[in-house]
Design goal:
5 helices, globular, 63% helix, 128 residues
Length: 128
């Protein structure tokens, strides 16, 4: 809305500012720029996967990067440790020829997406 002299009304300015603020918030939420206190543990592994086509190399790299960051700071989460144990059990299955690297990578991706797993916790370890 404009007044008779061509100057925008206060209401029009307020609406425009409100629309801009809503647009900014929507853009921030869509791009994932919301602060997260700790990245998901698989972030270490995913970054390693970009550098290593081999599941075994990716798993070792991810484990080393996670432990190098969380052990000195005493910030290793129980969830992260469970995930790491799961990946370690996949590594053992690949090394013992019980599954291929491709199958291990598929199960890794399935686990991250909240899919089902054929692994079970036995005592203090995870077995696949």
């Amino acid at each position: 809305m404009r007044s008779n002299d061509g100057v925008p009304s206060a209401r029009a300015v307020l609406r425009c500012g409100l629309a801009a603020a809503i647009g900014f918030v929507a853009a921030v939420v869509q791009t994932g720029c919301v602060y997260s206190p700790t990245p998901p543990v698989w972030g270490y592994y995913d970054r390693c996967a970009a550098e290593n086509p081999s599941f075994l190399a990716m798993a070792e790299c991810g484990k080393q990067k996670r432990l190098a960051e969380c052990v000195p700071n005493n910030t290793c989460s129980p969830e992260g440790t469970t995930f790491m144990e799961y990946v370690d059990s996949l590594v053992l299955s690949v090394k013992s020829k019980k599954m291929t690297e491709a199958e291990a990578m598929r199960r890794y991706a399935e686990y991250k997406s909240g899919g089902t797993s054929t692994c079970a916790r036995l005592g203090t370890s995870v077995q696949c």
